[in-house]
Amino acid sequence: MFADSAKIFIKSGKGGDGHVSFRRELYVPNGGPDGGDGGRGGDIIFEVDKGLNALTDFRHVRKYVATSGEEGGKRRCHGKDGQDLVIKVPEGTVIKDFESGKVIADMSGGNMRETILKGGNGGNGNMHYATATMQVPKYAQPGQDGQELWVILELKVIADVGLVGFPNVGKSTLLSRVSNARPKIANYHFTTINPHLGVVDLDDHKSFVMADIPGLIEGASEGVGLGHAFLKHIERTKVLIHMVDAASTEGRDPIEDIKAINGELEKYNPELLKRPQVIAANKIDALGPDGQETTEKIRSFFEKDGIKVFPISAVSGQGLKELLYYVYGLLQELDDTPVVFEREFDPSEILINENLPYTVEKLKEGYYSIEGPKIEKMLGYTNIDSEKGFEFFQNFLKKTGILEDLEKAGIQEGDTVKMYGLEFDYYK
């Protein structure tokens, strides 16, 4: 089964915690802090594997988590970094944020490898927090959390030309005749349920890539049938060949068919109608005496709008050379830069709270101490002598969990809390 979309969970590794330890040597009873830093968490990286052509593997494994960094050690030992997780995808895979539907990365063009989620930074060991006033810091920085995200993977085929049309009009037959592709061919609807790519080789080393897009039906833009699954593959193509059954072997009007397909393209993405279009009026070998009149009717309706019509027979090969060279000429007039979807969402902007350490310690009955860079930083930008500043200070203690830690340590109303030369009485 061809798989062209999947929903997966990805998470980068957590940074390792910093370590708290103190140097212990003979004849040095009170050595300084020597706790090492934690290792960095592993990244989530997507990489193109040109040997893949479907997202089938993601139907079985939906959770991808990079390893976390190791905790720092004694004697300033740095924790080992977490291992990056490389996820292999086919070329042409678009990675989207599940919540917003915005594009994170398009794994095509020159973009063969991209880091989607960065691992968390390792925390600093207590050796970083020794100061003139705090020479034995009993705290270290926790490692930064990894980032996590649900993403949608969508495979959009990369082709210069897209063959579109109702089911059973001969698209697969045409592709098999003019390229190296070998799609399944039979005389019933939806023989093709997967897009097929083929390289069309012309004389003088001229070539282009053509995609047989599975048959569209009315309502495809609303997701009827496999509408969305089929339409997404048209978005990268630069030229569209509308293939119609000029002989009306199934009783459909070829002009109405083209109008209906264009209507679905416009509903799905109006930009698609701005691309050059060509009409291949197929099955002229099955036309009766009025065959010339039928093709002229199609021409008179569309060529006034600049859409060229080519009567062809995919079975006999009649008219194919003229069609293919005309399409090649259109491609030469267009920008040869691959159609790549621009980034709309940057996971690196996901906010991760600054995780500075602190300690809550009971020094003696009724007397508690709070220390750490988190406290120093807050006191540095807060005027607690003002009413608003003191209110902010109280909210800070509550939101950061410091009050909860004091209560766990056994603090009672009226007890004293010491912070870097400041003392406060505790009241709820």
From TrEMBL:
The biological processes this protein is annotated with in GO are:
ribosome biogenesis
Q: Name one Pfam family in it.
A: GTP1_OBG
Superkingdom, taxonomy of origin: Bacteria
Q: Which residues form the Obg domain?
A: 1-158
Where does this polypeptide localize?
Cytoplasm
Assigned EC number: 3.6.5.-
EC class, as a word, reads hydrolase
Q: Which GO terms describe its molecular function?
A: GTP binding; GTPase activity; magnesium ion binding
| Residue ranges of every copy of the OCT domain listed in the record | 350-428
Looking at the record, the residues that make up the OBG-type G domain are: 159-332
| Family matches, as InterPro entries | G_OBG, GTP-bd, GTP-bd_Obg/CgtA, GTP-bd_prot_GTP1/OBG_C_sf, GTP1-OBG_CS, GTP1_OBG_dom, GTP1_OBG_dom_sf, OBG_GTPase
Required cofactors, per record? Answer: Mg(2+)
Annotated positions binding Mg(2+): S172, T192
Q: Which UniProt keywords apply?
A: Cytoplasm, GTP-binding, Hydrolase, Magnesium, Metal-binding, Nucleotide-binding
Q: Which GO terms describe its cellular component?
A: cytoplasm
What positions does the entry give for GTP binding? Answer: 165-172, 190-194, 212-215, 282-285, 313-315
Q: Does the keyword Magnesium apply?
A: yes
Q: Which family does it belong to?
A: Belongs to the TRAFAC class OBG-HflX-like GTPase superfamily. OBG GTPase family.
Summarize subunit and interaction data from the UniProt record for this chain.
Monomer.
In UniProt terms, what function does this protein have? An essential GTPase which binds GTP, GDP and possibly (p)ppGpp with moderate affinity, with high nucleotide exchange rates and a fairly low GTP hydrolysis rate. Plays a role in control of the cell cycle, stress response, ribosome biogenesis and in those bacteria that undergo differentiation, in morphogenesis control.
> What name appears for this protein in its UniProt entry?
GTPase Obg
Q: Source gene?
A: obgE
